[in-house]
Amino acid sequence: MNQRAAPRPSILAGILRIARGRADGIACFGASPQAFLSSLAPLLAFPLAGALLTLSSDGPIVALTSLAVALCAVLMPAVLSFELARLWKRQNNWLRFATAFNWCEWILPVVAGVAMLPLSLAVAAGMDEATASLMLAGILAGYGLWLHWFLARNALGLSALRAVTLVILVNLATGVTLMGPHVVARLL
User: Fold this and answer.
1) pLDDT tens sequence across 134-169
2) For residues 97 and 56, what is the distance between their CA atoms, to the nearest angstrom?
3) CA-CA distance, 77 to 101, in Å (whole number)?
4) Can you state the percent helix, strand and coil of the chain, rounding each to 5?
5) What is the helix (H) or strand (E) element at residue 105, kind and residue range?
């Protein structure tokens, strides 16, 4: 008897489905510690590469400080969302949510690229570059917040209000983690 193994869910297919607002894309992501760590690897690689580049130009203190801040910012959504999932008795769904969350962060650069095309044409037609930049930031912020809400609502099975709460707290804490050290350094 020749039994075929069930096809493995495709991360790319999951990302594309979620990007279009299809909750069935969440099933394409693993719910194991290994799947979660695999989703973190590329997010951690970029700050590490940046630190290596900064090391030669700005020195070890700046490079290591920037690396520490970036790593904390990358890990903040996972840590805080786990605590909220635990509080709301959704910790059994958290690994799949966190894995999908990490992989779906790669949607944002694609959205930026797609949004930049019409904005570039608008700038060429006379739109102020500052206005175009603000519009791009607004598009990315709006889509990013919706994406995080969509994942929280569907992967964790949260109510709309709890999903909004998670999105606000996670993004606020991540922003403070990223900007806090810079603000403190300027005050000193």
Assistant:
1) 999 999 999 999 999 999 999 999 999 999 999 999
2) 37
3) 9
4) 85, 0, 15
5) none
Distance CA 142, CA 108 (A): 11
Give the predicted TM-score (pTM) of the model: 0.88
Which tokens go with 103? 């992989």
81-136 pLDDT, tens digit each: 999 999 999 999 999 999 999 999 999 999 999 999 999 999 999 999 999 999 99
Closest by CA position to 9, among listed 88, 100, 78 = 100
The pair of three-digit structure tokens given for residue 67, joined into one six-digit string: 């690396």
Token readout for 108 is 């944002």
CA-CA distance, 32 to 133, in Å (whole number)? Answer: 39
Q: Is 126 left (phi over 0), alpha (psi -120 to 50) or beta?
A: left
Contact 173, 80 (CB under 8 A): yes
**C-alpha–C-alpha distance, residues 123 and 133, integer Å:** 10
Cβ atoms of residues 107 and 19 within 8 Å = yes
